[in-house]
């Protein structure tokens, strides 16, 4: 008797994103509750929870039209989001290295004219 182990939350999120990226279509919740268990093995009970977490993280877009909610995510949006994140991180790295260089210069300026005694060296 082998027990089937359920999917982790991250695996469910990844598989849900695969549904959107492979089909490049717009879905309602009821459609996803039918498709996800068949194609990706996500239980129908957890589809809404996983979808809401993706919407909260900005990975899936949701729009209410009339009385229905429509969900979609396209690969190009994910690519652009990663590019923006990369640009932000690169700018933070450059700012950090600039700050480090400035602090290093101030340390060098502060050392000029000071005599290192034996007591200071031991600390």
TrEMBL record:
A Pfam family reported for this protein in Swiss-Prot or TrEMBL: Mnd1
GO cellular component terms listed in the entry, alphabetical order: nucleus
Chain ranges of the Mnd1 HTH domain: 16-75
BP-aspect Gene Ontology terms: reciprocal meiotic recombination
InterPro entries (alphabetical): Mnd1_HTH, WH-like_DNA-bd_sf, WH_DNA-bd_sf
Xref: Gene3D superfamilies: Winged helix-like DNA-binding domain superfamily/Winged helix DNA-binding domain
Signal peptide: none
Official protein name in the record: Mnd1 HTH domain-containing protein
Organism name: Sciurus vulgaris (Eurasian red squirrel)
Taxonomy of the source species: Eukaryota, Metazoa, Chordata, Craniata, Vertebrata
């Amino acid at each position: 008797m082998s027990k089937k182990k359920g999917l982790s939350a991250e695996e469910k999120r990844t598989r849900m994103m695969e549904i959107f990226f492979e089909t490049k279509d717009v879905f309602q919740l009821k459609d996803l509750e039918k498709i996800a268990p068949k194609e990706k093995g996500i239980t129908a009970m957890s589809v809404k929870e996983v979808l809401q977490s993706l919407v909260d993280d900005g990975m899936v877009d949701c729009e209410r039209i009339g009385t229905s909610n429509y969900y979609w995510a396209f690969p190009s949006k994910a690519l652009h989001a990663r590019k923006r994140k990369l640009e932000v991180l690169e700018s933070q790295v450059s700012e950090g290295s600039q700050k480090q260089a400035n602090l290093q210069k101030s340390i060098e300026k502060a050392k000029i004219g000071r005599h290192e005694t034996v007591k200071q060296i031991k600390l």
